[in-house]
Design goal:
The strands form five sheets. A six-stranded mixed β-sheet has the order 5-6-7-4-3-8. The chain has a two-stranded antiparallel ribbon with strand order 1-10. Helix 7 runs parallel beside helix 9 and helix 9 packs across helix 14. The chain has four domains: about 160 residues, Beta Polymerase, domain 2 (2-Layer Sandwich); about 80 residues, Orthogonal Bundle (Hydrophobic Seed Protein), CATH 1.10.110; about 210 residues, no CATH class; about 50 residues, no CATH class. About 50% of the residues lie in helices and about 10% in strands. With about 525 residues, the chain is α+β, with helices and mostly antiparallel strands. The longest helix is centred in the C-terminal third of the chain and has 20 residues.
Amino acid sequence: MYQKQLMENCKIYVNSDASFLLAKVQQILAREGTRSYLVGGFVRDMLLGRDSGDIDIAVASSALETAAKVAAALNGKYIPLDKVNEIGRVVLFGSGKEGTWELDFSTLKDSIENDLAQRDFTIDAMAVELEEITLEFLTAKPISDTGTIILDVPGLIDPFNGHDDLRQGTIRAVSEPAFPADPARLLRAVRLAAELGFNIDGETEALIRKYAHLITTVAGERIRDELLPVFNLPGTAALLNCLDRLGLLTELIPELSPARGVDQPLIHYWDDFNHSIQTVAAVDFLLEHEEWPHIETDLLAAVPWSEELSQHFNQEISHGSTRKALLKLAALLHDIAKPATKTVDEDGRARFLGHGREGSAITTAILQRLRFSTRETRMVEIMVREHLRPTQMSNHDVPSRHAIYRYFRDTDDTGIEILFLSMADHLATRGPTLNLTEWQAHARMVEYVLTKRLEEEQVTKPPKLIDGHDLINIFGLEPGPAVGELLEAVREAQAAGEIAVREQALDYVKLLITNDRHIIPDK
């Protein structure tokens, strides 16, 4: 039997927008005579003083009908999420600081105790009866400039001692059937531990290992939604090692399994699998300025950085992903085709010819399986395919304007990411055997390319001087591939500073045609 505890000094911190929203919902449900409970992650986040845009409410009536009524009363959007299990969602679109809120209503099948017993972790298995909450906070003044205010809670329904686990920073499964009932919880345990800075209970870790194989039964989009936060957080490499230790990583991405134990040329300190993990760690080192424990020297001093770059990597792409998260995902997958492309020449040297191109195809298949968006998939695929490109742009010298133009043309929207991937790859290749002079030269090359891109936008996006109509009307060319090839040649010469105005562009085309007479159509 659960104990409805009057917590000593029990205070819950609620964002002011959430408090007013809860007051409105409470009034609506009170008018309907519906008994309701705040449950799950929202209660957990309130106790931790964390903001949350998602509110879970269990109601002792039809959740679908209740959600529809609340949506109508608050001018929100009603979405019947699960008609069989009676789960309805209300989406409220705010403005400015209010943002968007999602209220998920679930139907109590029996009692609140039984409802909490079906949940994943003890810290999510707490509830507060909505009608018992005193809303004195409505007139309270914020205690900080963040708009946070204090809500007194008369009682916390906590049958599994989730509040104690919150105090101790522990992720503990409510019961063993929690994982077979919803295998997405296997990954969620790691994600929650990372987000909250908690530890996973030893018995819960054992259960995760026992049921790790079930993660393959989870829909790709649910895995993506649990996995992306792992790549958005600092310390991603440690989290990947945790997933591997629990038996989840290669269940999620079985294409990584062949990389384990694959030896590489002597310049590499780690095998292919561990090199990939270390490359993720190196990305965090470069972007988050985390520790790189393998070299004591200040390696960041040579790395180009600016507020503009910080904003670039934090830019959201879709589904909660950021450029930073996608770069770390590419770092994990950049050498995924090495096992399949490995050959050993006569002198015993291992080679991996074409592993970038082959890896890009494997990457596309993985991300499509996990239901990443088309843009996300395309960006990571290009990063994997072109990850060696920065080191191929020059030979012991700064890249030419031609090379820089071609690089940003071919890498589309990921040119900056690939430059940082190349530095991370360099660090994760040498490890503790890093040559400082070579590292500084690599970093200088990256800084040079970035500087040219930022200072001379015409190198990567030169203004259009002529178009296909000019070539057809002035030179009598027929529409076709030759027109595109000539226009690209003009853009490259323009990026290199060889031509700058329309007349020069036309003279350049005339020269190209003169030197390649087959372009002119027969008259």
